[in-house]
Amino acid sequence: MRGRLSRRDRDRRGWLRGAPPPGWARVLPSALLAGVCAAELISPEPLDIGFLLGAIPPLAVLAHGPVATAVLGALVVVVLTIPVFSLNDPGSTDLLTVCFVAVLSVLLSFVRSRRDAQLVTERAVAEAAQRAVVPPLRERVGPVRCAGLYRAAQSGTLVGGDFFDVRAGPYGVRAVMGDVQGHGLSAVATVASLLGAFREAVLDQPDPAAVAARLDRRLVVDSAGVPHAELFATAVLLGFSADAGVVRIVACGQAGPLLLRDGRAMELDIEPCTPLGLGLADAAPPRVVSVRLRAGDLLFLASDGVTEARDADGVFYPLAERLPGFAGEEPAALAERVWADLVRHCPDVRDDVTMLVLAPRPQAGP
């Protein structure tokens, strides 16, 4: 779910991208010190392996703070000077070199620890700001159960070029899923602007076409006065009736949702109109398609990061073919199953991936 990084996402971020150091990095300096000492005690003849101890303080910098690094450096000096280990009697120059490396390692560990603490603070602020733009999706909005899945193309971010939201208003539940020009953090401002306009529009616009016109106007205003702005977005807007028995759909430059019914995935006959930001008011009004829903129906919306993902042979991910195989899943589980299947088909996903699952149920239902 959006709004938080899963454990899988933190692991994908990698050690060099801000994830905590792996366990082996923490254990390695101590294990190397213990291994050298044990080898010297067990061997009947002195071993020329004392040089390995010089690597312990620099290794400690990778995963330990200055105190632990200082302790390990001191232990290295002690081991080198205790006769029982017979480490070839290091001369004063060698011992001073090890001491210098240990002190320098403590200094580097202090700098790294301070920088890591600053990065943690900055990341927490960034995640809080992104959650403010795209808050977690509620599991149920009125008579509609919801589940969303978002994987940004830019690693470590919660918001990119794709967006979705589901809101209840005086005219029923409204949902939107879209894709703005570009992706990553550069698109966050446009996403914030569109979501703000959507949340306002659902309060006073009676149908999805009017909501689409409001979003279009927002982008037109945002790009006014900016030469060659070319600011646009594709989106699908849905408006459910009060009893969730009918959904009205408008597609702006993007394919409509798949209807999962009776174990089959059906493509709805929806002709996309002009993308948002190109002046819907100057073009023909968007076509609104009404679909009557049955108990157990699911509406599945996916961004082009799903439909245009290709495997090593260039074959597109067959969403409509795979989706019936996951029928019967809860909305949240369905999105996760599709994501797992997509990664198997195309391990190197380079675009923002967004899925929105909507399961309308009558208000009188359980």
UniProtKB/TrEMBL annotation:
Signal peptide: none
Transmembrane feature ranges: 59-85, 91-111
Alphabetized Pfam families for the sequence: SpoIIE
Record keyword Transferase present: no
InterPro entries tied to this protein: Bact_Sigma-Reg (IPR052016), PPM-type-like_dom_sf (IPR036457), PPM-type_phosphatase-like_dom (IPR001932)
Keyword list, A-Z: Hydrolase, Membrane, Transmembrane, Transmembrane helix
Segments forming domain PPM-type phosphatase: 144-360
Family matches, as SUPFAM superfamilies: PP2C-like
Keyword Transmembrane carried by entry: yes
Listed name of the protein: SpoIIE family protein phosphatase
Native source organism of the sequence: Streptomyces koelreuteriae
